[in-house]
Amino acid sequence: MSVMKNVDNQYDYDLFVIGVGSGGVRAARMSANYGARVATAEDKFMGGTCVNVGCVPKKLMVYASHFSEDYENAEGFGWQKSRPKFHWPTFLENKNTEIKRLNGIYQGLLDNAGVTHFDGRARIVDAHHISINNKVVSTEKILIATGGWPTVPVFPGSEHVITSNEAFFLKDLPKRTLIVGGGYIAVEFAGIFAGLGAETHLSYRGPLFLRNFDQDIREIVAEELAKKHIDLRFNSNVASIEKNEDGCFHVKFKEGDELEVDVVMYATGRAPAVDDIGLENVNVKLRKNGAIIVDDAFRTSEPSIFALGDVTDKIQLTPVAIKEAMAFAQTQFLDQPHRMDYDDIATAVFCQPNIGTVGLTEAEARDQYGDIDIYRSKFRAMKHTLSGSDELSMMEIIVDRASDKVIGVHMVGAEAGEIIQGIAIAIKAGATKAVFDATVGIHPTSAEEFVTMRDPVSV
After folding, report:
1. From residue 378, how far is each of 118, 381, 393 by CA, in Å?
2. Which residues lie closer than 8 Å to 374 by C-beta, 6 or more apart?
């Protein structure tokens, strides 16, 4: 599809994209499809964080870790007890093979769109020039899509910790792990390591993890993780880490307790990846955390330079970066101005059980709407009537009383992400509680609970 007009041939390219993660690749290939001459550069891995050290390998690890529960639950359905053994090297090899396949797909997307790709570190020389592999090229527009990178605070022994990046490539599965952090990455990896058989501890400096999620979700997830023998250490702060002669680590906490583990993983935050890309050579303004400041069209304070995705630190989700990339390409090269809509973006946390959420939390809803109704159901899923598991699911609907509009839906339970994806469409369409009530459920499923809750539990 070639619709771009008035190509300025004084430049080598119409667009140069730094970073080929989900957002960068989508922006590059769609801009090329619209007729732009596009180049990309990447010095790490094709596909960015999500494909290589993020959502894709993490979800594969979640699948792997959950089989232990499936085996345990199967006995109640008549399957004879067995003692399966997890083999980390097999999983690692298969995971790496899948990632390489995806790397090839991303490379193919660029090639098929006619995008010129450079393997190497791209640095901005000025508003219209990029230095790459000892060569300088010119471009009308520059798009920064370099994503984010894990950060670790400096403290005695901090050189001994790993981040999620390294967790995907551990040579051996640790027998004892300490995860430090309270966000979704920390909670997910705690479930992963515990499910794979490791003694798992989760340390968080606050009173309860998942700070920006609905309070009911936070509470029930804490209860469920504790049932899975994960040692939850709230109001907990690491003071120092020492490496012992046997290779394990001695962790001291500021509260006075100590712990011996084989791996300490920090998941305490990610910073925009803006180092060493030449921003000092141009007028691109940053926030205090390094995030690039952009307007509604993803334009920075330097008119020819744009940025999108995690490097802008708006909503750090792969689908958000992809949507932003589409809006960017259509606006710049299709002459169809688009603005990104950040309202009611659904998301999932692949802890065990899963979290799915869309819209406002109860606290946000009370602040914005005042009078609201809360519909909530907490139950043991049908599967566990025979499995013997005491795992609970929770579903919650938040309704603006004045308009009857559903303004938030939250779930903890099996396949929550899959269920909330469908609910998110209804929320985006402006569904009311009456629409939910008029919808016939699918029986027997957990999801039908969303259309059968009739009496508010809180007002």
Report:
1. 52, 9, 6
2. 362, 396, 397, 398, 399, 456, 457, 458, 459
Q: Is residue 371 part of a domain?
A: yes
User: How far is 263 from 167, CA to CA, in rounded Å?
Assistant: 9
Residue 89 structural domain:
13-150+271-333
Q: Which of 307, 333, 359 finishes a domain?
A: 333
Express as a percent the part of the chain with pLDDT over 70.
98
Tell me which residues are annotated as active site: 443
Whole-number Å distance between alpha carbons of 458 and 393: 19
State the CATH number of the domain containing residue 36: 3.50.50.60
Residue 9's pLDDT band, with cuts at 50, 70 and 90, is confident
Please say whether the beta carbons of 365 and 400 come within 8 A.
Answer: yes
Say if 4 falls within a structural domain.
no
Q: Is 24 in contact with 325 (CB distance < 8 Å)?
A: yes
Q: For residue 2, is pLDDT > 60?
A: no
Task: For residue 357, tell me if it sits in a domain.
Answer: yes
- Domain count across the chain: 3
Using a 10 angstrom Cβ sphere, with 0-12 exposed, 13-18 middle and 19 or more buried, the burial of residue 154 is exposed
Q: Strand, helix or coil at 296? A: coil
SS3 of residue 354 by DSSP: coil
Could you tell me the pTM of the whole model? 0.95
pLDDT tens digits for 19-43? 999 999 999 999 999 999 999 999 9
- Tell me if 168 sits within 8 A of 53, measured CB to CB: yes
375 in the same domain as 307: no
Question: What is residue 265's predicted lDDT score, i.e. its pLDDT?
Answer: 98
